[in-house]
Design a protein that fits this description.
binds zinc ion, Alpha-Beta Plaits, six-stranded mixed beta sheet, Aminopeptidase, 2 domains, four-stranded antiparallel beta sheet, single chain, alpha+beta, disordered C terminus
Length: about 400
């Protein structure tokens, strides 16, 4: 191990990641209410020496973005985390916002998803900066809103431009084990809004009208005929009708003239939003309905993601991981869609999803395993050191 890596490990030892995590958990940040957490993290980053700015995404909902530039020019590594948690389950024992440690597990709302990963990222960044080593390039931390919703925070970040960013690490709880692999292949999803317009009539004289609800039912019953690609690992994506509305608001014997349905479809590499729209339109045309049916693609849209592991970030990470865990990381398919689909799929930036492990995600008494939190923090810090030191000529800087 090079001397500067030893310096980083010493710097890590002086930072209390668990205390930091407790502090993050104490700030409520259920999806839609990320403002206070963005502010607190912004303040932490500022104290560490980052240039901090906020990005308004939706009303008072803001992303927080910190950038720290080392003295020499070089690559930029961004750590990312979503600020939002889900709402606490009703069967929590104790206060979800007061972290409690039992048997090496820290319990608290968002401990695993994903304030643990954020605490590790912030600690790793702090260690790099406080070491005083003149690394090349820059490190960033971005905290984004709405991952549990529409990923509007990550989308806004990509739209604003991340051209300077060479790699992103998202601290979601993917440990790189067989049971919990690092996602290398993730399906995407599209959402259809189907609107069926018929002709209103008296319910005793249906032949005078066109029943929009019944016509919509014919389409929904035929969804299993949608042409779908078969992917060797992901199969073909499930199609589910999530919602259907139509008919009277106040009881009346009236043939409904309008029906709307929301249909979700998981997509695999090779399938696109445009293609999915055409598939459903062709299916509708084949049914020769009397009603008029229109198909719109509505947010959120996620492209399927095949991770390109040839990127430098992955090579560096795999080296560090193998040293820390005495085995290579395991990659796999994941049906859980994260902001990586936005950063990599939409932004084209190599994105690694790796974080601490634990359990009860989105459930009562969610926890992170503190030993895994420490190992993860160390892996982040050393990955960053080697990533920043890496230069195209392959020269090393001790
Ligand atoms: Zn998450």
């Amino acid at each position: 191990m090079k001397s500067e890596e030893r310096q980083i490990l010493a710097a890590l030892d002086s930072i209390d990641t668990t205390a930091l995590l407790r502090e993050l958990i104490a700030i409520p940040s259920a999806v839609g209410n990320e403002g206070q957490l963005a502010k607190v993290i912004g303040e932490m980053l500022r104290v560490d020496g980052f240039d901090v700015r906020y990005q308004d995404v939706e009303g008072a909902r803001r992303n927080v973005i910190g950038t720290f530039r080392f003295p020499r020019s070089g690559p930029c590594l961004m750590f990312n985390g979503h600020l939002d948690t889900v709402a606490p389950a009703t069967d929590w024992k104790g206060d979800p916002l007061t972290a409690e440690v039992h048997n090496g597990r820290l319990h608290g709302l968002g401990a695993l998803d994903m304030k643990g990963g954020i605490a590790s990222s912030l600690t790793a960044c702090k260690a790099l900066i406080s070491s005083g080593i003149p690394f090349r390039g820059s490190i960033m931390f971005s905290g984004v809103i709405d991952e549990e919703g529409y990923s509007s925070g990550a989308r806004a970040l990509v739209e604003q431009g991340l051209d300077a960013v060479d790699g992103i690490i998202i601290g979601e709880p993917c440990a790189g084990t067989k049971a919990n692999p690092i996602p290398a292949l993730t399906p995407g999803k599209v959402l259809y809004r189907l609107t069926v317009e018929g002709v209103q009539a008296h319910g005793f004289m249906p032949q005078e009208g066109v029943n929009a609800v019944e016509e919509a039912a014919r389409i929904i019953a035929a969804l299993d005929q949608l042409p779908q690609l078969e992917h060797p690992k992901l199969g073909n994506g499930p199609v589910s009708t999530l919602k259907i509305t139509g008919g009277y608001e106040e009881y009346a014997v009236v043939v409904p003239d309008r029906c709307e349905a929301i249909i979700s479809r998981m997509i695999v590499p090779g399938e696109t939003s445009k293609g999915c729209k055409a598939d459903l339109e062709a299916l509708i045309a084949s049914l020769k309905l009397d009603a008029r049916a229109t198909v719109e693609m509505v947010p959120p849209y996620y492209a399927p993601l095949e991770t390109d592991r040839s990127a430098k970030l992955f090579r560096v990470f795999e080296e560090v991981y193998a040293d820390e865990y005495d085995r290579p990381p395991t990659y796999g398919t994941s049906v859980v869609i994260t902001d990586a689909s936005v950063f990599s799929g939409l932004g084209g930036i190599p994105t690694l999803v790796f974080g601490p492990s634990g359990g009860s995600i989105h459930q009562a008494n969610e926890y992170v395993d503190l030993a895994s939190l420490a190992a993860c923090t160390k892996t982040y810090a050393l990955t960053a050191v080697r990533f920043l030191n890496h230069s195209p000529e392959g020269e090393s800087h001790d």
